Amino acid sequence: MSDLTKSEHPATGGALDPLSHGEGAVDRFPDPGLPEHKHRLSDKSEANAKRVERQVALIFGLSVLASIGGVVGYFAFPVGSTLGSVQASTLSIGLGLGIGMLGIGVAAVHWAKALMSDVEKVDERHPQRSDDATRAAAVQELKDGADDSRIARRPVLKGALVSAVAVAPLAFVVPFVGNLGGDWNVSRFRYTMWAPGVRLARDPDGALIRPEDVTIGSVWHVIPDGLDESEHMLEEKAKAVVLLVRLDPKDLTEEPGRESWSWDGIVAYSKVCTHVGCPVALYEQQTHHLLCPCHQSTFDVSDGAKVVFGPAKRALPQLPIMVDDEGYLAAQSDFHEMVGPSTWERERYVDYPVPDEEKAH
């Protein structure tokens, strides 16, 4: 080691000293210092600074208008029973939120880059606890920095910033508060459009399904026939969507009393996850598993759609099916339990009867 430290570097000829501090240390890398400061246009004249200030205020103003537009859109495009109303409401609120938040970010960045101080500072290393004089100087530097940023001298920007930040949350607060008074009657999920004899139709074209159309391993997204004629089509579809799968009958395990709910290996289960209601739509043919893409709840189609993994706590409700006189797949009845996420009232409706006169009400 002693020979190495006293030798010459082959490329630079400088002494190879492993230490860069202490008595007799060799300073091999001189401090290059700070580059020459380049003044911005806003630094060169107050007129340029005022122009940037107006630009920032304008962007904040656009953010305010966008946020207000999102609130207006919530009332102007109420969610109805059509897909168009859902799209219009979602688009108006989303644009209001997105442009409002984007405006705040763009304005803040432009303000910082064009008006606030961009002079580089050097902070020398020192012991963690500075002396009182140094601490007082640091506090003074912070005050000087605030003065240098010209915040106090630009009330227009302060007002625009406060307005944009105050108004931006309204685009999602107002819809949230407005929906607090909605219909929280979870018993509406007790019944769906499925009833004895209602045929299974392919989603979205509504084509009726024959058993021979469904091959082993195939998956069909199914809705009740006549759904498009319903007054509340979207609400009814959200409850009644079904996933139809055909397995080899020898691979199918059926609970006692449910042997007649399938047809030659064809089974139908609710597509609404029993965790939080996401659409269960990913089918793995080899394992017969259905996966919910939201939180990875996994259901075994070959064994009553029971939960094999994930946060869901109960199996997917099964729709009893049959083949009608014309050879089409149809429902034997409605589901025998509530579809969707578990609720505090669900246990009241497990294996409930579904008389048509009660369902009509």
From TrEMBL:
Superkingdom field: Bacteria
InterPro entries: QcrA_N (IPR045603), Rieske_2Fe-2S (IPR017941), Rieske_2Fe-2S_sf (IPR036922), Rieske_Fe-S_prot (IPR014349), Rieske_Fe-S_prot_C (IPR005805)
UniProt xrefs under CDD domains: Rieske
Pfam families per the UniProt record, alphabetical: QcrA_N, Rieske
Keywords: 2Fe-2S, Cell membrane, Disulfide bond, Electron transport, Iron, Iron-sulfur, Membrane, Metal-binding, Oxidoreductase, Respiratory chain, Transmembrane, Transmembrane helix, Transport
Keyword Membrane attached: yes
GO molecular function terms attached to this record: 2 iron, 2 sulfur cluster binding; metal ion binding; monooxygenase activity; oxidoreductase activity, acting on paired donors, with incorporation or reduction of molecular oxygen
Membrane disposition: Multi-pass membrane protein
Gene Ontology CC terms, in alphabetical order: plasma membrane
Reported cofactor(s): [2Fe-2S] cluster
Ranges of biased composition (kind: Basic and acidic residues): 24-47
Location of the protein in the cell: Cell membrane
Domain Rieske: 239-330
Protein family according to the UniProt entry: Belongs to the Rieske iron-sulfur protein family.
Chain's role: Iron-sulfur subunit of the cytochrome bc1 complex, an essential component of the respiratory electron transport chain required for ATP synthesis. The bc1 complex catalyzes the oxidation of menaquinol and the reduction of cytochrome c in the respiratory chain. The bc1 complex operates through a Q-cycle mechanism that couples electron transfer to generation of the proton gradient that drives ATP synthesis.
Protein's recorded name: Cytochrome bc1 complex Rieske iron-sulfur subunit
Biological source species: Serinibacter arcticus
Lineage: Bacteria, Bacillati, Actinomycetota, Actinomycetes, Micrococcales
